[in-house]
Amino acid sequence: MLAYLIRRLFAAAVMLVVVILAVFCIFFVFPKWAGVDIAGSFVGKQADPAAVEAVRVKLGLDDPVYSQVWEFFKGIFVGRTYAAGGDVTHCAAPCFGYSFRTQQAVWPVLTDRFPVTLGLALGAAVLWLVFGVAAGVLSALKRGSLWDRGAMVVALAGVSLPIYFTGLLSLAIFSYGLGWIDGQYVPIGDSFSGWLGGMILPWITLAFLYAAMYARITRATMLEVLGEDYIRTARAKGLTEQVVIRKHAMRSTMTPILTMLGMDLGALIGGAILTETTFSLPGLGQKVLDAIKNQDLPFILGVTLITSLAVLIANLVVDILYAVIDPRVRLA
Amino acid sequence: MTELSKSGAAVGEPTAASPAPTAFLEVRDLKVHFPTDDGLVKSVDGLSFQLEKGKTLGIVGESGSGKSVTSLGILGLHTAGQYGKRKAQISGEIWLDGTELLSADPDHVRKLRGREMAMIFQDPLSALHPYYTIGQQIVEAYRIHHDVDKKTARRRAVEMLDRVGIPQPDKRVDSYPHEFSGGMRQRAMIAMALVNNPELLIADEPTTALDVTVQAQILDLIRDLQKEFGSAVIIITHDLGVVAELADDILVMYAGRCVERGPAEKVFYEPRHPYTWGLLGSMPRLDREQQDRLIPVKGSPPSLINVPSGCAFNPRCPYADVPKDNVTRTVRPELTEVGGKHWAACHMTQEQRERIWTEEIAPKL
Predict the structure, then answer these.
(1) What's one GO-annotated cellular component (chain A) (predicted)?
(2) Closest Cβ–Cβ partner in B80, B144, B192 for A241
(3) Which CA distances in Å does B29 have to B32, B99, B256, B308, B349?
(4) ipTM for the whole complex
(5) Which pLDDT score, from 0 to 100, does residue A219 have?
(6) Which residue among A232, A248, A328 sits closest to B77, beta carbon to beta carbon?
(7) Which of B 36-75 lie inside 8 A of A, CB atoms?
């Protein structure tokens, strides 16, 4: 188990370095090769050539590629200093550079917005896990019943309806129509109940989509597991049906669900663009949308790295949980 | 039917509301039917037998003859946890130690499962839960029926593993099924089945998934354990060699029914049903010089939805054309006694069958 853990951690660390390098190359090296003037895009369209040149020097865009990569890499872990003539700017670690548009440092903005997205993703995940898995298990146990068919129709609707439909609909009904929910985002530090009020609709909207997928996967997996020989063995031992389901069937059903959860959570933490835009949540997703519109490379790069990191960590956690659940994985 | 009443407890298609039997296990006119889209699958269609404690019954037949369905039926596993599926239709009587199981409270039957009657399955790799250690699974089986703490149950598990011949049982108790070899897994499965000293042990093709060298060890183990625990054992197999080793009585099934049953030596040395002849002819034997090729039973088992009227074996029977007197061919042959406690269901007269066996079949085997 320990060896498995060390192997996984090492693999994740290597992956992280590879991701950082790849992302940097995609945003700063490849465009240059393709003839895109990054300094020009920083300064603006009708720029003074001297200003463009200053930026080029300051960002080190003319340095050899390996030195640029190294500076960027170093910046993330120990910070870096931008210097052009007498103009010296120190960027503390973790340094993702400065916005091309607002000149703000990227990292503080990311950390500022990250909690919003994290709260959205985790809250929704709890909801969809509880309801999706429960609905899936019930459907499997009552296969062919009215409940099963009803739940699967609702699930189909959940999978098919886009967030900007269900989200706007829920806003129209509960916020503008009935006036139950204010719908404004309030930071959790300011008022917990205000935060809950602002998050409840986004949570439900996002969870509806995912719960639908999870219900379908749970149902299919559960049905498959119930046909396994070891379930028959468990019954032959004289276990009550409740224990057979809870202890023997559920444990096997959890493995594919965990895999999905790792991927989904990782991806969502990088920004639930649709949900955040629909509900005007100041999260990473909304920021990255702005950044893409403005070609604000450092921001896109920062968010991409955060997303990759989130996916890496989520997968690491899933891998470890996998080994806890399934002893055969520990050998792998 | 008259033979039945004469022979008393020997075998039976009993009358309704018949009294509790004296035998330890008695199955009367068991029918297990599964409704499907294509029609009613009559997996078991009127099976009766009985079994005393300390005795072994071998149930033999091809795939799909209803052997496993019978064993699962005795344990009540056709009705436990059949979610949303169309329910199996089960009728008849199953008497275990004076209790009729089919009409009993399902929760009562559940409590009997594992304690009074236990089962060894065919493929121990898929029949053991891959996520729990062997020890956890045996401990669980013990603690359902015994109110003891985990430590005591664990000691019991180690003791059982030791008894079934697993080396270093106190270490191996913490192994997972995938860390065991096939033979060891089956030993562990047997340990789990016997942990509660069940009085009825059903082994459903216990050696089919194992290497030939391990098969004999497992069969020896089952025989030794039966002597030690004095349980009644039903061994289900398509391998006549297995029952030859173990069984006191043999029941040959075909298309959900019993076609021949009797003491093992009778069924082996004086079989009175063409299907049994076919099974014997298709079995390789090392104890005799092989003169000819093995003789397979031609054709394949009938559909259990449209079982041929009359004798179900008729389409495959090499002696279907033997002239039969006073018999309506569309009537199913009933089990009739052909010797002491030896029964067969065939339209040919006993003399015809004796002659065919001694003149045509026996010399070729």
Answers:
(1) plasma membrane
(2) B80
(3) 10, 16, 11, 19, 25
(4) 0.85
(5) 93
(6) A232
(7) 72, 75
